[in-house]
Design goal:
mainly alpha, about 80% helix
Length: about 120
């Protein structure tokens, strides 16, 4: 019986971590932008938006799942890169890829949930 090379294990593990990062980001994104438990925060920011520039920025950020996704993706990717010891140049590529995949996943699940 042949033993699976360690490289194969690493590739599978990296793929699994990437898939979990995408799913975690999709959930964080939905939590911030659409869930009921964060609605009071979004409404409070919206009420303050005409008076404060920071509140206007935060409101715009929390109302757009694409905008929120890129910032959350940067945070999730920083965490993954720190623990996986990936090369630094993969950080922006991974951030954008995870944000895109999570946003596409969110778009697909929103269509399913709204039917």
């Amino acid at each position: 019986m042949s033993k699976v090379p360690r490289y194969h294990d690493r590739v599978v593990f990296d793929f699994a971590v990437g898939a979990l990062a995408v799913l975690a980001l999709a959930r964080l994104n939905r939590l911030a932008v659409r869930d009921i438990i964060t609605a009071p925060l979004r409404h409070a920011l919206k009420a303050r938006a005409p008076h404060a520039a920071a509140a206007r920025w935060a409101t715009a950020l929390l109302m757009c799942h694409w905008c929120t996704g890129i910032w959350f993706s940067a945070a999730v990717t920083a965490y993954v890169h720190h623990h996986m010891s990936w090369s630094w140049w993969l950080y922006p590529v991974t951030t954008l890829a995870i944000a895109q995949l999570a946003s596409d996943y969110t778009d697909q699940t929103n269509g399913i949930l709204e039917r």
